[in-house]
Amino acid sequence: MKIWNGLDDLPNEPGRTVISLGCFDGVHRGHQLLLARLTKVAATKGAKSVVVTFDPLPAQVLYPETAPVAIMALEDRLSALEAAGVDAVLVIKYTRDIASQPAEDFVAQAFVKSLHAAVVVVGEDCRFGRGRAGNIDTLKGAGLRWNFDVSVMSDRTAGGVGGRRYSSTWAREALSSGNVGIAEQILGRPHRIRMRATWAAGSWTTKVGSVRGMLPTSGDYAGWVRIGSGERSPATIRIPGQAPLVADTVIEMQMPGTQCAGKLSGESQQIAFDFSSTF
């Protein structure tokens, strides 16, 4: 899968594309259904399937004091998009300048001039552009003007459980209440966080400020850990009950003794932890 970091990173002639636009935070099962439509339409058109996404999340730029933490690290978002069969991802750095751009101008610059869109595939709640004024009608009007089609996936076909639609909001609610099993059902995979941790006194420790991805509520959780590029191993992680968690709050992770042999105090590693259950 190709990854383009900003419009300036695009090739001069990307060819015709079929595009989907969104944050895709969590790349949950509803997203996955939309991506399946994206790749199917692209195959039918003989075009590349391209996701246009933003980093950081728009809310984190516009409302930094109240914005939610991203469910997943950008690298995991990209991995999930690749697993869904997407040909390329355009990652646009979200800034206040981007936020102030009128929706029609964004479509003209990104979809038409840069990506030569043949079709745009979106959910019916799609919003974009200055003041979130851009919507399905905006896209359809632009499509008539610049000769691309718009394919809309309705909420009725976006999947869900118990009458509730899959969403990033629902995944966050599950994690906030410690229901990592429910979160896994929504996401279609175990929830993952990433961090740089240090080995000391028989456990790996890190601080909340170094964690990428959303932490569940306080508690003890079982799961699987990957240290660096090594094999996955069973582990437990303790998220303290201090409220609110601050950047210096310490998180502790433990592994079976056989997995810890030879570790040196002060050793630091990149770690990925997949949650499987609470206890």
Task: Give a verbal description of the structure.
This protein has 279 residues and is α/β, with parallel strands linked by helices. It folds into two domains: 2-160, Rossmann fold (3-Layer(aba) Sandwich), CATH 3.40.50.620; 192-278, Elongation Factor Tu (Ef-tu), domain 3. Helix content is 27%, strand content 31%. The protein is built from eight helices and 14 strands. The strands form three sheets. The chain has a six-stranded parallel sheet with strand order 1-4-3-2-5-6, sandwiched between helices. Strands 9-10-13-12-11-14 form a six-stranded antiparallel beta barrel. Strands 7-8 form a two-stranded antiparallel sheet. α5 (103-114) packs across α6 and α7 (168-176) packs antiparallel against α8. The longest helix has 17 residues, at 29-45. It is elongated and about 65 Å long. The chain starts with a strand and ends with a strand. The model has no long low-confidence stretch (mean pLDDT 93).
Number of domains: 2
Tally the helices: what do you get?
Answer: 8
* CA(first)-CA(last) distance: 38 Å
Q: What percent of residues are in strands?
A: 25-35%
Overall pLDDT level: 93
Number of β-strand runs: 14
Poorly predicted regions are none
